[in-house]
Amino acid sequence: MPSPVYFGSARQCRLEAKETLPAKLDLILERLRVRERVKDEIVAIKMHVGNNIGYSTVHPVFVRKIVQAVKEGGGKPFVTDVHWDVNGAEERGYSSEKLGGHVYPAAGLGEKYFYTHTRPFKNIQEWGVAGMIQDATFLINLAHVKGHPSCGFGAAFKNIALGCMIGKTRSAMHDTMHYDRYWFAENCPDAETRQRIIATCPHKAIVEDKNKPDELHLHFEQCNQCGRCLQVAPPGSLKIDPVNFHAFQEACAISASIVLSTFAPGKAIHISLATHITPVCDCFGFTSMPILRDVGIFGSDDIVAIDQAVLDVSARERLIEENIPTSMEVHTREGHPFRQLHGPLKDPYKVVEYGEQLGLGSRAYELIDVLPVEEITRAPIGYVPAQ
Ligand code: SF4
What is the whole-number distance in angstroms between the Cα of residue 195 and the centre of ligand 1? Predict the structure, then answer.
């Protein structure tokens, strides 16, 4: 049976507050029965509170509504994120006065409060789940939808997969992209050729290993898989391969499954706001121009269904190429706009495929519009003389 995903479009018909996104969030909270479900629960509202001077994270107006709903339902809410984003969160408007609830670093100020989970995957043996997350009895996964340089996009999965783990685990998750070999030094012993490979990348994605000059290192975040380096690299020396790019997405799915396993069934909901959709994630500490039109707000009990729905609905939008930073390059116009921006091997749909395989939910969903945008029919325009 398809999972329900509640949706409120960013579009409105009339110029009335009740047709805007915060009001549609209220409708989604009602449809998800948040107030009825949180009585006596310790509710972690996991969001990204941004960094530095970024201003496109979920606006406090939305967060406060969620905090308020939890309080009205008899729950004990707190807002949480990784410590280095919580430091300075007040400067971006995320203070207890504005939100109505405290903002805590998920694993403590020094990231020393966490629980270890053993689950081997590539270079990772143990995963460190932030203590405040595991101690909570109910999770509201509040995500901002945006692009991401490692995997194409970030929303519900990425918000908890990275944001509920300690820094050591987050680093190790990024390192999964390097686990499978992609550089074979034995097939390129010539230093001059290695320098030509490095020089050919316009995105500075290939660098020499500091300690071993015959080893090249690929910064996958910067690579858009344009293939220029492969035209210079001797056969068999360099691979630009899906296995490396998809590893991060699989790590995100595994991480999310570990986080969700710390909550009893029915004790997690997911809300994703797809507005001011930037090319890269909110960790960058600044806000770039939006690369897609605002899409709307989504809510579901099913993390797979909500990310699938976010991707499907946003796929109808055109990539706003004139808004993309000029250092970025679009060389394919196939597939999802996030894939067009970050390259064909950063297919944003991989994370929901892995998530479904892990039994976290269903890619089949029913999109339920909580307030469909009314279409107005008008009589033909008459002729009004200029004078
Ligand atoms: S594929 Fe393109 S972006 Fe990636 S490392 Fe090679 S030259 Fe650089």
Answer: 14
- In the three-class reduction of DSSP (H, G, I as helix; E, B as strand; rest coil), residue 12 is classed as coil
Residue in the structure block whose two tokens are 């946003």: 314
What SS3 class is residue 350?
Answer: helix
Which atom in ligand 1 lies closest to the alpha carbon of residue 200? 7
- Whether the CB-CB separation of 107 and 168 falls below 8 Å is answered with no
Assign 149 a pLDDT band (cuts: 50, 70, 90): very high
Q: Is residue 374 part of a domain?
A: no
Q: In b/e form, how buried is each residue of 333-351, taking b as 16+ CB within 10 angstroms?
A: eeebbbbbbbbbbbbbbbb
Q: Please give the helix or strand (H or E) that residue 153 lies within, else none.
A: strand 152-154
CATH code, domain with 333: 3.40.50.11440
Question: The pTM is what?
Answer: 0.96
Query: Which of 216, 237, 240, 332 to mutate for ligand 1's pocket (most ligand atoms within 8 Å of CB)?
Result: 240
Q: Whose CA is nearest to atom 6 of ligand 1?
A: 229
Residue 381: per-residue pLDDT: 87
**Strand, coil or helix: 177:** helix
Mean pLDDT, residues 40-48: 98
pLDDT in tens, 266-305: 999 999 999 999 999 999 999 999 999 999 999 999 999 9
pLDDT exceeds 90 at position 385 = no
**Model confidence pLDDT, tens digit, residues 213-230:** 899 999 999 999 999 999
pLDDT given at position 353 = 98
The bridge status of strand 124-130 relative to strand 268-274 is unpaired
Domains: count for the chain: 2
**Which atom of ligand 1 approaches the CA of 238 most closely?**
6
Residue 384 covered by a domain: no
Residue 375 lies in a domain: no
Asked if residue 294 and residue 216 are part of one domain, the reply reads no
Residues 132 and 200 in one domain: no
Per-residue pLDDT band for 342 (boundaries 50, 70, 90) equals very high
Owner of token pair 């909270």: 29
Give the residue numbers spanning the domain of 104.
3-176+243-369
DSSP 19: G
